[in-house]
Amino acid sequence: MKSVRLTALALVLAAMAGPALAQDKGADKKADAPAEKVEPQVHSTRLSGTFGGVRMNYTATIGETILAAEDGTQKAAIVTTSYVKEPRDPNRPVTFLFNGGPGSGSVWLQMGAFGPKRVDIPSDARDDGAPPYPIVDNPDSLLDVTDIVFIDPPGTGFSHLIGKTEAKEFYGVTQDAKAVAEVIRRWLGDNGRWNSPKFLGGESYGTSRSAAVANQLMNVTYNDVALNGIILISTILDFAAASETPGNELPYITNLPSMAAVALYHGKTSGPPVEQFVQEARQFAIGPYASALLKGQHLSPEEHASIRRQLAHYTGLSETYLDEADLRVTPGRFFKELLRDRGLTIGRLDSRYTGKDYDNAGENVDNDPSFYGIDASYTAAVNTWERGVLGFKTDREYQSISGIGGQWDWNLGSGGRDSVAYLNVAPYIGQALRENSGLRVFVGQGYYDFATPFFGAEYALSRSGIPQDRIQYHYYGAGHMMYVRDEDRAKLTRDVRDFIRSR
Length: 503
Known about the structure:
- The two termini are 29 Å apart.
- Strands 1, 2, 3, 4, 7, 8, 9, 10, 13 and 14 form a 10-stranded mixed sheet that branches. Strands 5-6 form a two-stranded antiparallel ribbon. It has a two-stranded antiparallel ribbon with strand order 11-12.
- The chain folds into 2 domains: 36-240 and 375-501, Alpha/Beta hydrolase fold, catalytic domain (Rossmann fold), CATH 3.40.50; 247-372, no CATH class.
- The protein is 37% helix and 17% strand.
- It has 15 helices and 14 strands.
- α3 packs across α4, α5 runs antiparallel to α6 and α6 (274-295) packs antiparallel against α7.
- With 503 residues, it is of the alpha/beta class.
């Protein structure tokens, strides 16, 4: 999931504390001041390109949608960037996309995978270096099969809260989903697209948002917006299964196949090709390993030794280290330990990337080399494209990754304490599938992703109440943003293109 390290987030929040206090102290003086009024800007540009082998004209429109309270008080300005084929077809598919975080702008999917332009960075897990970064045509864009609307939810990209709007009104699983659902409904109405085939998709927390937005569009209100497809890229739906709370054994199980893939990639273990090796790891994880973990301290010495030996094979870690970790290795420790003998660490978002820490003695890595290896290029690209070519005017900084996750309300609002203690939005997708026979789900996962491990996605979507016959899985030889690898960007866009075409 795209998120800054906790230390960085703490600094961001600390930096925000001072101005926030000053604003509070001056609130009384501004009580009589007129409310802020935002005049939404909209800019359209006629362009052309070749996508999926099809030469076409299209209109790129970047604009603000103002969300307001019932009394008309403006609450938030949401920026969307849409690409619509010309001449327009009211029955053409339209796909709504966003990224995750929470707090991440749509820059990653837009400038990396599906937009008409992309930033060209090394494909082989090397650092993106310094600017200028090439912004090139993207023939892999999906524009040949669908119009595309990229949404920056409140607090991401150029989108922002207005006036005295409180963060709690938008920064939460359900609050955020309601806002995005309203933007989608407004776009459909403004563009005459209510009868178009509709697809909804996101990456990382954007998959959680996809489930919650689908719930708002299809399950919550009688003003139903039926979807043809949900596109989940680097999926996180069951947060309890990913929680490293002491006593929770599920993360060790769901992370193990990813550890196997990474150990094989870096030559720390040997085995068959990655597809077959991770399948073996899946069977070990859900079988003998899960049984051993659930036995806890009742595990016999003989069983312990057998599990330790197999675990060493799949993880590439020494049996001595696994003994010291009591057969339970967190991803953070794995990042530091796997290549310690080479003086290297591995990435969280994409474990093909390696980094070098201040020293080699610590337990956890200094930073994620797979994030600092790409972030500058994407930020430069989205600002160049949206401020320059598309003409969006603002003094605000584009929030590729903002700090709003620290203010996030994770309560789903329907299950009391349990909806926080076991946070899981996968049932939203189950209900949507059960109640819409035309809905299908696309799941795309990278083998080398520890932010949203592929076995965690498989686990979440295989629970009771979720029809299995309309879910398709696709796997890629990179990490969280698999599209940074040229081969995987081409494969991902082919797979999604086929998914849309087969509606």
